[in-house]
Design goal:
Number of strands: 10
Structural class: alpha+beta
Low-confidence stretches: 4-9
Number of helices: 10
Amino acid sequence: MHSTIDHQEPNKPSRKKPMFPVNDRLRAYLKNHGREVKLPVLYNDLLHITYSLPLKDKLGNDTYWETVVYDMRDWEFIRSGLVQMYAILKTEGDLTFTSHLDVARIDYCSFGNSNPFRIRIVNKYNDNYDHYYIKIADASRIYGLELEHILSPNRITYLTNQNTLVEEHIPGIPGDVFIANHLNDPHTNKIRLAKEFVKFNERCFVRLLGDMRSYNFVVDITPDIEDYQYRIRAIDFDQQSYEGRKNLYMPQFFKENYALVDLCSKLLNKESIHQYQTEERTMMAFRVASSRFRLMELLNIMAKDQISVPAKLHQLRTELGDYFHNQQFYKCGSMGQLVKRQLKQTLQKNLKLIQKNLGKFED
């Protein structure tokens, strides 16, 4: 994929990333694009927990989640608000269907940066259930979600209100579970999976999304005419352009992803890898071209925001400048400016080709 790994320094992100507040300019952007709405329940309302029980998986292993219970005086307000919240997330506030929905369970995770609540909503008629997440609104995560929505092949549904962030559940098999249980399944098309990992690696590096260890992405499998197609999707966005090491933005350099990297090195030659990288950059360039005004609005806000610490900014701009042999990186004064410079560096060639071909049609 990209240049060989430096084994001397371990590729581990910061243990605990600080939360960065949502500033007025980002808040105005969220309102303008329909992300900031009035929500019936806020993150702080869910903190009034009476007691909790550890949540185990089907095999009895700890999941890092705990199921929380509330006092009856708080529960009716929370339950009703969470059902309404699901309607806002899924049907833009059409409450017609809420009478047959209920909250089956609320889980809380103290592991990780965002301390999320996972809400399980159940249909009372057929027991079908769905999930969504309520987290603290962190500016880095919001920039990550927006960049995913604009630049990736995936659309993202999320909402904010004050210090609360609500995210839809992203379906798929967690990467670590997939590697353990499905990678060597005879039905798994390993070449297609390797191709998708190359593309995923490229997407993360181009938009500087960090910490894509196997448990921070899912594998979405779609049956096709004669086989299966794969899509690897990020599910954790709070490491959007925070870290200082360049390699932390390339999933290929995490030991947790070694099995997928090994697959690529065994099944793909250099020409194929280069082809898949070019394909992904071309698709990203098309998305930049079609959403350029929204993307520029976001990047201009991001460029003036502080979503990292000076030492990490200095390290990343130096490493990227050295990697690309481009002194423009050294001048970047914020992580937002670095993302803008990185997009220009990696997609410029593809954008020029798109503009050239558009010119032919316009003539």
